Amino acid sequence: MLNHSGLIVFDMDSTLISIECIDEIANLLGQRDAVAAITEQAMLGEIDFAASLKQRVALLEGIETSLFDTLFNPIPLTPGAQSLVDYCKSRDWYCVVVSGGFTWFSERVAGQLGLDQHVANGLEINDGKLTGKVSGAIIDGYKKAQILNELKAKLPKNAPVVAVGDGANDQWMLQAADIGIAFCAKPLLRRQADICISQADLSLVIPELEKRCK
């Protein structure tokens, strides 16, 4: 059991942080435009996420992971992210990031914000360089919803469950939550959300939670 009074599950890229990590990694190799185009298609729901992830990661082969620090110094948190997490913590909610991005980044975001858990994809690394392959099971939209449901089942009865995301990959997670929040989101996700936040400030979620989670 999770001895918490609620649960909030966040997407990471373009939600808790202001960048798409895979696009920024690709920029280190001069592959940003090619990768960003695939990312955009995936976030719009035009192509399968898992296939698109493998396709994009293949373009990253050879990048030294030591260069990742240049992308996260400082961590590019979305405005209001810390305020929202602090608010949820003050209500004793379990706070999680579940990302189709990568654990190297989600670990640092979770540490910076004080999240309780992080789940993301692994990047296969050999001699400090990316091999161009994903390691382990892929965290796609269905897996995000599965993780949310598994956490929800551990909560006390009637504890509120909230999900926050921006792309098509988040639609199943938002549907599985009691309150699904589309944050500066793609049209597909906005149509399915309970709440839409159009300004890039996560603290705007707080008054919505005040109204709906008494």
Automatic annotation (TrEMBL):
Pathway(s) it belongs to: Amino-acid biosynthesis; L-serine biosynthesis; L-serine from 3-phospho-D-glycerate: step 3/3
CDD domains the record matches: HAD_PSP
Domain of life, source organism: Bacteria
Record's GO cellular component terms: cytoplasm
Family: Belongs to the HAD-like hydrolase superfamily. SerB family.
PANTHER family tied to this protein: PHOSPHOSERINE PHOSPHATASE
Protein name (record): Phosphoserine phosphatase
Organism: Idiomarina fontislapidosi
Originating gene: serB
